[in-house]
Amino acid sequence: MMSVTGKKRSFTLVELIAVVAIVTILVAMSFPSLRSALDYLQVSVFSESLRSFMGYLRERSVAEGEILVFSVDTQLNKCYASAQGQEYALRSLSIPDNIKLQPEPDNIMFYPDGRMDKFSLEVSGRRDTVFTLASDRSRTHVKINP
């Protein structure tokens, strides 16, 4: 941009350093809330994936006419499903490193008539974000309670 006197106008080094410093301070101040939001999002997305996984198990149990068992392996960081009495996993779901699962009871059964065991599954993140998955009263659907 040209001024009236014919010289180019531009930002000085001091002005640029001031802008960079202000932006840096603003980013540093918002970082903790961004981390909390990210943790909440990760726990929320994983909870929804887990609910979908359990819905799949319910549908597969009905379709195949056999009892399926949902289990959590905290050492391998996996959830898996197997047919009752079988050792191999039909399907598995990896648990992210920053998420902890606490199922009650340890194994959840899905029956061919569409029912499932009464259960409560706590999904928690690093920053006090907790979602609870539980069977509904009829024990035919999974609810998520944030």
Salient structural properties:
about 150 residues; alpha+beta; minor pseudopilin epsh fold; four-stranded antiparallel β-sheet; about 35% helix; rod-shaped
List the helices and strands and how they pair.
Blueprint: H1 13-64, E1 68-73, E2 78-83, E3 91-94, E4 100-104, E5 107-110, E6 120-124, E7 130-135, E8 142-145
Antiparallel strand pairs: 1-2, 1-5, 2-3, 4-6, 6-7, 7-8
> With helices defined by DSSP (H or I, 4 residues minimum), what is the helix count?
1
Runs with pLDDT <50, length 5+?
Answer: none
**pLDDT averaged over residues:** 89
Residues in helix, %? 25-40%
How much strand?
A: 25-35%
> Which series of helices and strands comes N to C?
HEEEEEEEE
Q: Span between N and C termini?
A: 54 Å
CATH class: Alpha Beta
- The backbone outline, from C-alpha atoms, is rod-shaped
Counted beta strands: 8
Q: What's the number of domains?
A: 1
**Widest beta sheet: strand line-up:** 3-2-1-5
Radius of gyration: 25 Å
Q: Sheet bearing the most strands, described?
A: 4 strands, antiparallel
Could you characterize the architecture of this molecule?
The chain contains 1 helix and 8 strands, in the order αββββββββ. It has one helix at 13-64; strands spanning 68-73, 78-83, 91-94, 100-104, 107-110, 120-124, 130-135, 142-145. β6 (120-124) and β7 (130-135) form a beta hairpin. The chain is α+β, with helices and mostly antiparallel strands and 146 residues long. The termini are far apart. The chain has one domain: 3-Layer(bab) Sandwich (minor pseudopilin epsh fold). The strands form 2 sheets. It has a 4-stranded antiparallel beta sheet. The protein has a 4-stranded antiparallel beta sheet with strand order 4-6-7-8, covered by helices on one side. The mean pLDDT is 89.
